[in-house]
Model the fold of this input.
Amino acid sequence: MPEPRFNTYIWTHIALGDETGDGSIQNVGPGGVFVRSSTIGRMGDEVRLSFEGPDGDMVEVIGIIWWTKRDLGGRGPGLHGFGVRLMASSGNYRSLLEMLSHPRRRRSARQRFAA
Done:
């Protein structure tokens, strides 16, 4: 059975080695996230994402770029982004997933996080 995914719109800081940038997390799940950004590494690169969680605390995740829109043949504006397979995450990330998995909590968070 596939992992649950939740659509979001969370601004995030991106660190790819010496390169940094900003983007938005478009969806999240237990094993990874999709980030829309013009800052894109290569498949296999380690990436660190930092963003504010629903309770105001900072959330940090570390992962590997699993795929990029560019590698999948994406062209044109608005098609920049990459999928991240998570290797490590703060407890705040698990709290975010739990909050999004409950419909009532998800509705209240949608004002802040969902697209």
In short: The chain has a mean pLDDT of 81. The longest strand covers residues 6-16. The beta strands are 6-16, 19-28, 32-36, 46-52, 58-68, 82-89.
